[in-house]
Design brief:
This protein is of the alpha/beta class and 516 residues long. 38% of the residues lie in helices and 19% in strands. Strand 1 and strand 2 form a beta hairpin.
C-alpha cells in the first residue's frame, strides 16, 4: 500500500512549519520557513500576512521534495492565537497581523474594563479582559484606523487567513481560536453578542464558526499551482496552536494535563465544562472536538527567563543557544532542592497566572556571601518550574488536580526540569516522544478525524508516544512544598515595591510612542 500523509501548516511567532504525518502519527519530514516580527513603536508587535503566506508556500514546496504530492490526503492549519488580521471579502489582508504579544490596545482594554464588570465578562467568556486578546485590537482599529475598520469584512487569526487564501473560502474560524478573541460565549459556543455590542464592534465582522475537523474546503486551482498539491485536496480548518498542542500532547481523557515549556510556558488540563475560577486566574478555550474545554494557567516568561539568566548571570556574554545545557544542569544539580533559599521570579515581562499584572519585574533574591553559581543556576530552573507549579495548584483548587502530565516544547528536553516537574507536582511526568511536533500532530489529528483516518480524537490519541518518564522523589517533593509556601508570598508581599519600580522605569522610557 502506498504511503499516505496529512500536511500540517503551523504559523508560529517566528516562522511557519510544514510537516507531513502518516496515519501512525509519525512525521516523515518537516520544514520551517521564517518571517520577521516588526516593532514600529514600543509595545507594538506585528507581522505581514503576505510574508507569512509566502513562507507557508515555501515550506510546502520543500516538504513536497520528499513527499510525493499524490500521497497527500489533506491539508490542515494551526497558528498563534490572540491575533487580529482584518480582511476583505476576497480574503486579502487590509492591515498587518497584530499578534498576540502586541500591547498597543491597553487603553482600549481599560475602556472595556470600565464598560463591563470583570466578573460578568469572565463568567461569559471564561477569560479576563486582556490586552493580548483580539477584542481590544478590534476596538483599536475602529478608533485609530477607521478606514481599515470600515473596509474590514471579517477579523481573523493567522491560520484562518491562510485557510481563506488556500481555499477561496475566507472568513471562517474554529471555536478554539475564537475563544481567545475574548468575545465568544464559552457556554453556548456562539459569539457573545452583548459583549460585542457593549464594545462597539460590529458583530457582522466576526468570522463564521466551524468545527476544527471541517473539510468542506478544498485547495483552489490557484494554490494548487503555487504549491504543487492537487486541486480539490480536502483542507481542514484546524485550530489554534494551544488547542492543537493539547491534543498532540496527551491522551483524550478529562483530567490529563500537559505542560509546554517554551519562551512562554503553560499548564493545561481538559474539562467537561469551562472553569470559572473565583479569582479569575485561569483561562478557557474550546477543545478541538468542542465537547470539552482546555483550562490553562500561563507563565509569561518560561525558557525566555531562564535564557536571560544564563546569558546575563550564569555565563555572561554567551548566547543561550550556544551554551552546553548539560553542563549548566550539572552545575545546578550540585545544589540541593530549594537552592539553599535562593529564589528566582521569572517575571521579566510581567505575569499572567496567577497575578495578571504588567507591573512586576524579574527578581533573584535570597543570596548571601555563602551562595555560589550553583545555587543561582538551580534557582533559575526552580523559579520557572515553581511558577508553573502555581498554575497546577490553581487547577487543583478548581477540581482539576494534576496527577499525570506530559511535557512538550523545547524545555521538555531538560532532564532537570523533567524531574523538578515530577517532584513539585508530586505527579507522574512523561516526556513526549517528539516534543517539538506536538502542535503539528494535534492539527494532523483534526484533519485525520475530518477525512476518516480516525473514528474520533480518542482513537487518534493512540498514536501519541513517550520517550521517558519521571516519578517523584519523596525528599525533594517535601522540600519543594516548603519552598512553594515562601515562593508564593514573594510577589504579594512586594507588590507595592514592584508597582513603584514599574512606574519609575516607565518614566525613564524616552522612546517616542504614538498618540493613543
Amino acid at each position: 500500500m502506498d504511503e499516505a500523509y496529512i500536511l500540517t501548516l503551523d504559523a508560529g511567532t517566528t516562522g511557519v512549519k510544514c510537516a507531513a504525518f502518516s496515519p501512525k502519527g509519525e512525521a516523515a519530514c518537516s520544514a520551517v520557513e521564517a518571517y520577521p516580527t516588526y516593532y514600529p513603536f514600543s509595545g507594538w508587535a506585528q507581522q505581514k500576512p503576505g510574508e507569512q503566506l509566502n513562507a507557508a508556500l515555501r515550506a510546502i514546496r520543500i516538504v513536497l521534495e520528499k513527499v510525493p504530492a499524490e500521497q497527500v490526503c489533506a491539508l490542515v492549519f494551526s497558528g498563534t492565537m490572540n491575533g487580529c488580521i482584518p480582511i476583505d471579502e476576497k480574503g486579502e489582508a487590509l492591515h498587518e497581523n497584530i499578534i498576540h504579544s502586541d500591547l498597543r490596545a491597553e487603553p482600549q482594554t481599560e475602556q472595556l474594563r470600565k464598560a463591563i464588570p470583570l466578573r460578568d465578562y469572565y463568567a461569559v467568556t471564561g477569560n479576563r479582559i486582556d490586552v493580548h486578546s483580539g477584542l481590544p485590537k478590534y476596538i483599536w482599529l475602529r478608533q485609530h484606523r477607521p478606514e481599515v475598520y470600515g473596509r474590514a469584512w471579517k477579523f481573523v487569526n493567522i491560520k484562518d487567513y491562510l485557510y481563506g487564501r488556500f481555499t477561496g473560502l475566507p472568513g471562517r474560524t474554529d471555536r478554539s481560536d475564537a475563544s481567545l478573541c475574548n468575545c465568544l460565549n464559552m457556554h453556548t459556543g456562539d459569539w457573545a453578542w452583548d459583549i460585542l455590542r457593549e464594545a462597539g464592534v460590529d458583530a457582522g465582522k466576526m468570522p463564521e464558526l466551524h468545527a476544527s475537523t471541517d473539510v468542506t474546503g478544498t485547495l483552489s486551482a490557484e494554490f494548487a499551482a503555487l504549491t504543487g498539491l492537487p486541486q480539490g485536496l480536502p483542507v481542514a480548518i484546524g485550530a489554534g496552536d494551544g488547542a492543537c498542542a493539547a491534543h498532540g500532547a496527551r491522551q483524550h481523557v478529562v483530567g490529563d494535563a500537559y505542560m509546554n515549556i517554551g519562551s512562554s510556558a503553560w499548564v493545561s488540563s481538559m474539562s467537561k465544562k469551562p472553569v470559572i475560577d473565583r479569582e479569575m486566574r485561569l483561562f478557557n478555550y474550546f477543545d478541538l472536538d468542542e465537547t470539552c474545554y482546555n483550562v490553562c494557567g500561563t507563565v509569561q516568561c518560561g525558557s525566555a527567563a531562564s535564557n536571560w539568566a544564563i546569558e546575563n548571570l550564569i555565563y555572561p556574554g554567551t548566547r543561550a543557544a550556544d551554551c552546553d545545557f548539560a553542563k549548566i544542569e550539572a552545575l545546578a544539580r550540585t545544589a540541593p532542592a530549594g537552592a539553599q533559599g535562593v529564589m528566582y521570579l521569572p517575571t521579566l515581562m510581567g505575569e499572567r497566572t496567577p497575578w495578571w499584572t504588567a507591573k512586576v519585574s524579574g527578581t533573584l533574591m535570597g543570596f548571601t556571601l555563602y551562595h555560589g553559581p550553583q545555587h543561582i543556576a538551580r534557582a533559575v530552573y526552580e523559579g520557572v518550574m515553581q511558577s508553573l507549579h502555581m498554575c497546577g495548584d490553581i487547577l487543583g483548587e478548581n477540581g482539576l488536580p494534576v496527577r499525570r502530565m506530559t511535557l512538550i516544547g523545547g524545555g521538555a528536553k531538560s532532564r532537570l526540569w523533567g524531574q523538578m516537574a515530577a517532584d513539585m507536582f508530586d505527579a507522574q511526568v512523561r516526556v513526549h516522544a517528539t516534543p517539538h511536533e506536538a502542535t503539528s500532530l494535534g492539527a494532523a489529528f483534526a484533519a485525520g478525524v475530518g477525512i476518516g483516518w480516525y473514528q474520533d480524537f480518542a482513537q487518534a490519541a493512540r498514536q501519541i508516544h513517550f520517550s521517558r518518564e519521571y516519578t517523584p522523589d519523596p525528599a525533594a517533593a517535601a522540600a519543594y512544598q516548603k519552598h512553594l509556601a515562601v515562593y508564593k508570598a514573594l510577589y504579594p508581599n512586594m507588590k507595592g515595591a514592584y508597582e513603584a519600580l514599574a512606574d519609575y522605569q516607565s518614566s525613564l522610557n524616552e522612546q517616542n510612542q504614538p498618540a493613543q
